[in-house]
Amino acid sequence: MTRFVIRLLINSLALWLTTLIVAGVSVRSYADDTLATVVTYLLVGLIFGVVNAIIGNTIRILAFPLYILTLGLIALVVNGLLLLLVAWISDLIGFGLEVDGFWWGVLGAIVLGLLSWLIGVLVRPILGRRQR
């Protein structure tokens, strides 16, 4: 459970940083105060984690030959489409992630993946000390 919460926080922080870096990716909060914005980022991070875990892994398994054929470059397209899917799901709720187009989704997915990885690398030594 702790690992799930940590991944959720890492994804939400990476998503927030992505919206600051990439102009075509933004998050629309359900209210104007700070707490509502934080909850919105956490909800979008949760949606992103669930979509990536279920649909993303299924696509990666089924399209494994395509990944080999394209030397992994298809992952950029798949991650961009998954980010667009998260935007569509959060739009159904009425607030959340907004992506301006496919290429903004691809760029946002690249930045989001890099930031999530970097934050995970930075957090890992801190968590390793607490578990001992």
From TrEMBL:
Extract the InterPro entries matched here: Phage_holin_4_2
Q: Does the keyword Coiled coil apply?
A: no
Q: Which residues cross the membrane?
A: 41-59, 66-89, 101-123
Q: Which UniProt keywords apply?
A: Membrane, Transmembrane, Transmembrane helix
Q: Which Pfam families match?
A: Phage_holin_4_2
Matching PANTHER family: SLR0284 PROTEIN (PTHR37309:SF1)
State the protein's name: Phage holin family protein
The species this protein was found in: Microcella daejeonensis
